[in-house]
Amino acid sequence: MSKKDTLLEQIRADIIDNNICPNLAKTARNLVMGSGNTDAGIVFIGEAPGKKEDEIGLPFIGAAGKFLDEMLTTAGMTRSDVYITNIVKYRPPNNRDPSPVEKKAFWPYLVRQLDVIRPTIVVTLGRHSMEYFLPGIKISEIHGQPQQITWGNTQIVIVPLYHPAAALYNGGLRATLIEDFIKLPTIINLLEKEKQ
After folding, report:
1. Which residues are bridge partners to 42 per DSSP?
2. Which of 92, 133, 93 is nearest to 110 (CA)?
3. Which residues contact 159 (CB under 8 A, 6 or more apart)?
4. How far is CA 171 from CA 124, 168, 178, 179, 183, in A?
């Protein structure tokens, strides 16, 4: 197990030990931490696990996850190139939106995950994860546009995208999301060059 894997396992243990969102924990089957490459330059953050994710214990494996996989392929990436997680790590009952209290409770653990992985960019999937990094901004105004913010002592680039689930219900968003997704490798390459 790598040092990063050990640190991520510790975050999982701390969520359980600190009894984060006990009401959600009671109704959930699994704590869904995240999956993928812990050395990834790109981390995708959704809002919370759904039914399938809760059953299996992995993020984005239902219908929205299949669409996410399609978009990764279109952009020349696979799941093994990226890391995928959610703000809230337990499934809210009946797939309801996570509450502000639940998101706030899990936020410090997401921050710790990002500190371990240290991605070049963070791609927020949907408004729930975007609003924590870019409060007070509408996703319709900035989707697909890299936003540089100060994160602790470092600068981090956030790329807000629509949630894949929204695109499943709204055909117009599907094309927009694919278009935004295809730009991601170019954004990463530009940022990597700037670092050198």
Report:
1. 121
2. 133
3. 121, 122, 123, 124, 144, 145, 146, 147, 180, 184, 187
4. 20, 7, 11, 13, 20
| 79 vs 40: CA distance, rounded Å | 10
From the candidate CATH numbers 3.40.470.10, 3.40.390.10, 3.40.50.300, 2.60.40.10, the one assigned to the domain spanning 3-195:
3.40.470.10
Distance between CA atoms of 151 and 134, rounded to whole angstroms?
11
Q: What pLDDT digit, counting tens, does each position of 8-28 carry?
A: 999 999 999 999 999 999 999
For residue 96, the tally of other CB atoms under 10 A from its CB is 9
Quote the distance between the C-alpha of residue 60 and its chain's center: 9
Six-digit token string for 152? 């602790």
Phi-psi domain of 46 (left: phi exceeds 0; alpha: psi -120 through 50; beta: other): beta
Cβ partners under 8 Å of residue 99, min gap 6: 92
Domain locations along the chain = 3-195
Interval 123-145: pLDDT, tens: 999 998 999 899 999 999 999 99
The whole-angstrom separation of Cα 73 and Cα 138 is 28
